[in-house]
Amino acid sequence: MTEPQPPLEPFAIPDYAVPATLFQVLVARAHRHRHKAAFIYLAGEEECQVTFGKLFEDVLLLSRAFRRRGIARGDRVVLLSDNRYDWIVTDLAIMAIGAVSVPRGADTPRQELEYIVEQSGSSYLVVETDQLLALHDDYIKGCRQLKGVFVISAPELHTLFSHVYSYADLLADRRFTDEDVGRFLRRGEEIMPDDLLTVIYTSGTTGQPKGVMLSHANIMHNVNEVPAVIGLTESDVWLSILPTWHIFERTAEYLSLARGSTLVYSAVKRFAQDLEKYRPTLVATVPRVWESLYSRVQAGVKKKGKLASRLFAAFVWISATFRRNRRLYLGRFPVYGPESWWQTQSRRFPALAKMVVLYPLHRLAMKKLALVQDRFGGRLRLAISGGGTLATYLEEWIDAVGIRIVNAYGMTECSPSIAGRGLNCRVYGTVGPPVPLTEIRIASEEGEILPPGREGLIEVRGPQVTRGYYRNEEETARSFTEDGFFRTGDLGRMTLTGELVITGRAKEIIVLASGENIDPTRIENAITMFPFIQDAVLVGQDKKGLGALLIPNIDELREYARQKFSDMKEEGEELLTNSRVLEHIKREMNRLLHPGQGFKPHEKLQGIAFLDREFKLGEELTNTLKKKRHVIEQKYRQIINDLLH
């Protein structure tokens, strides 16, 4: 499948006007967009374009090969692989048989893989490479539960009496007949909307992964309803960077497939380059990637000198200030209760006056900031951020440079979309209204339904919500209310006009020894505004005060120390433990955390500590770059105790 193939010869396939399953989505696109590019990827240094017709052929051939090797309807198949075109083909081939995919990233630790295979009752395993096969070889050879193992990228592997096959073995014969097509289509017709499509194990930010069951109907709710929210059309081009097995990226690929748009597979190392090369109209990614792009742009500006850096900062400030006042004038900020005419006008008129003053400068700023838009390809009409909370400063910066940000809220258990500030919503500072056919309510810990403006636990009900966790009735029962609402574990409040504002994560709340509850996210977002801070984790559970573990940008820290301390001799890692530097930085951070910015007196930092290594995927970070707080707190327990003794 990694080799470019000739276009699929025409044959008769049905046209599903309103697809009810993912199989029908695949067939409908092959019918209507047979010769249009569905996916673009690199095979070595060669660029490959795959049409929708070719995708149909690849799925047909692989599903036929899987059936011949024993995979049947209802079987669970673990798919251990990272981003690549072969991933979506494998996923769709498993689906076309009526089997159930159990996806996970290639960096999944051995212990976790064993747990997922056993807990899901999987009979088959697909791994990405022969190196990955070798890594887990001892386990695979000793696992009697596995009836077959398939390797995506490897030379021919199969030997007599072996149950291991490479795709080179499976797809040596790529010929097929009309009879093969007919059999493929008839088998797909047997798939029903309520059939289980996938079991996705949560990323484990709070403990042992749980298997979220999602049906075709769950996924199809997103496929049918989300395109209108983002105005998705067949002329759109996506740039893909997130792990494909994660529900956020996976659904983006399903959306692209369903609407006949084109998706380009990128990678972290090529992302900035691919933005300029492929000029996407849509990018869906997580906050940490936006943080990286922000830092890259800021570093590029700094290299041009102090004057250029100051001018750029001024243009961003002008644009952000003008846009903020325009929103104030137009009433595009959250409103939590009734306002009098006088209250409304007292806000609108000063905002209008500032807009008039800033308008000429804003026009100039937007011309200059267009250069930043060019770094994103120049055609980016929507930047979708999900999988975590986007820091306010980042959201304002992206907006200031003229990129429309879609701040979305979702989770694996909801396939994933719950709410989104798409084209149908202009209320800034929110994640928008619920996606269609979805109910959101805010409840107290006692179960009381709260009115707009009151903070509480977010509960959701809709066609996209999971039926529960696989073979885990206890956790399923705990996660749903008696009337069928799913308990998200997130904190939020509703505006008077029906938009949702996320205020924190109930499970991530830090409780001090004094009993004060603190949401770490806002404080972490505030202190990462310092250019020498790559990342921050707030700590202090059961302690008298708060501390912060910091990941430094050593070059920026060196420059900062040089500016603030003329007699500073340390330039390397010695800076990380210099008491004068630490005390000064802590003081500057606490200056940010003042009541004028909405912080409380007990939300000051008692101590800070720089760590000498970055957080790593699979260790302190999940595959969507969320921090595993319980892992970090355990790993750096001694530092935390010394910091907050």
- Binned, the helix content reads 25-40%
* Stretches with pLDDT under 50, minimum 5 residues: 4-8
> How many DSSP H or I helices?
21
Shape: globular
Strand content: 15-25%
Question: Which tags fit this structure?
Answer:
single chain; 645 residues; alpha/beta; 8-stranded mixed sheet; 40% helix
Q: What is the topology?
A:
Layout lengths: L21 H11 L4 E7 L2 E6 H17 L7 E5 L4 H13 L2 E5 L5 H11 L3 E6 H6 L1 H6 L5 E6 L10 E3 H4 L7 H12 L6 E6 L9 E5 H15 L6 E4 L6 H13 L2 E4 L5 H8 L3 E4 L1 H16 L3 H25 L10 H35 L6 E4 L6 H9 L4 E6 L6 E4 L18 E5 L12 E6 L11 H7 L6 E9 L5 E6 L4 E2 L5 E2 L1 H8 L5 E7 L6 E7 L1 H11 L14 H14 L12 E6 L18 H7 L1 H7 L2
Parallel strand pairs: 1-11, 3-4, 3-5, 5-6, 6-7, 10-11, 10-12, 12-13, 13-14, 23-24
Antiparallel strand pairs: 1-2, 8-9, 14-15, 16-17, 17-18, 18-19, 20-21, 22-23
Structure description:
The chain has 645 residues and is α/β, with parallel strands linked by helices. The chain is built from 21 helices and 24 strands. The strands form 6 sheets. The chain has an 8-stranded mixed sheet, with helices on both faces. It has a 5-stranded parallel sheet with strand order 4-3-5-6-7, sandwiched between helices. The termini are far apart.
